Amino acid sequence: MNSEKLPHALSLIGPSFIGKQNFAVSFANFILCSSPLKKAPCGKCKSCYLSRSGNHPDCVIIKPESKRKNINVDSIRVLETFFSQTSQQGGWKIVIISPAESMNTNAANALLKTLEEPKEKTLIMLVCHDSSRLLITIKSRCQKLIFPVPDRSKVKFWLEKKLPDIQNINELIDHANGRPILAMNLTETDLIETRNEFNYLLDSLALNKTSPVDLAELYKTNDPELIIDWLYYKLVFEIKSKEKITSLNLSFRYMDKLFQSKRLIQSSANPNLQLIWEELFVNWKYLFATR
Fold first, then answer.
1. Reduced 3-state DSSP string for 6-18
2. How far apart are CA 213 and CA 211, in angstroms?
3. What is the full per-residue pLDDT of the chain (291 aa) written as tens digits?
């Protein structure tokens, strides 16, 4: 690899659970390897050993303390000290920020200052699920790598290698909406059953067999971004099937409302989830109510 051609910053952009974080870590391991092969780290040098242990002194991963929290300015300010110090292994110094859009305003501005004054043999990788939430000035200073949802056949082949004992690969892919990492995670939880129940309750909502308030109460403690995703993909399915949709205009307006709700949930505003769910479920009932 010609390290002279590496940019100072990369933005890895694409949906969640498709492997961007895995790529960032693997690429960092490759760059830090003292004797890299053509397309992979050697796996034998001291740097590779440190990378496998998750304690490489020349690689830092910055992420929120919890799913509902932002990355604050103090987490970003440590980069100035980190990059000013000599590499302990005599090579590159690498930072991975994931997800980058979770930086609050002060953190984003602090990162911008670092990007404006890059040091030699340093690389910042921004793992980003929603690039619209990144400052334009940050995006303009990063080389962009787009990660689309992989082709279904490739996802199936990969999962069959990773999960040779799992029989319901196609069902996993369907429930993960084609996202390979999420499909793997589903094998370790009861999310498939939970999502099936959720879809059933949405259908019941349209038939007046359950109420928006009861449904909001039931799901207010679930992962809010996951529920938004389920609503989105359920809506997409109904639009494609053309069986229950009576107004495409209303459907797309509802989709916009989902995007707005997701951004509100991801913000630092600490929104009332009960009210968000009640509004979304009331609108869903109106959108799909039997006429």
1. CCCEEEEECCCCC
2. 5
3. 555 578 999 999 999 999 999 999 999 999 999 999 888 999 999 999 999 999 999 999 999 987 667 899 999 999 999 999 999 988 999 999 999 999 999 999 999 999 999 999 999 999 999 898 899 999 999 999 999 999 999 999 999 999 998 888 998 998 888 999 999 988 877 888 888 899 999 999 989 999 999 999 998 888 888 899 999 999 998 888 877 777 889 999 999 999 999 888 877 677 899 999 999 999 999 998 754
Residues 46 and 103 placed together within one structural domain of the fold? yes
**In this structure, are 260 and 206 located in the same domain?**
yes
- In three-state secondary structure terms, 124 is strand
Is residue 207 located within the same domain as residue 272? yes
Cα four-point dihedral sign 13, 15, 16, 17: negative
Alpha-carbon separation of residue 50 from 43, 77, 241 (angstroms): 10, 24, 51
User: 141 with 211, same domain?
Assistant: no
Do 37 and 110 lie in one domain? The reply is yes
Output the six-digit token pair for 249: 């205009």
**Domain for residue 14, yes or no?**
yes
The reply to whether 22 and 85 lie within a common domain is yes
Q: Which domain holds residue 259?
A: 189-288
132 & 7 share domain: yes
One-letter amino acid of 110: A
Q: What is the CATH number of the domain that holds 52?
A: 3.40.50.300
Q: Using alpha carbons only, give the angle 210, 214, 219 rounded to the nearest 5 degrees.
A: 115
Evaluate whether residue 181 is within a structural domain.
Answer: no
The tokens describing 29, both together, are 């391991």
The number of folded domains in the chain is 2
* CA dist., res. 179 & res. 190, Å (int): 17
* Helix-helix angle 248-266:224-241, to 10 degrees: 170
- Please report whether residue 233 resides in a domain: yes
Q: How far separated are the first and last CA of the chain, in Å rounded?
A: 63
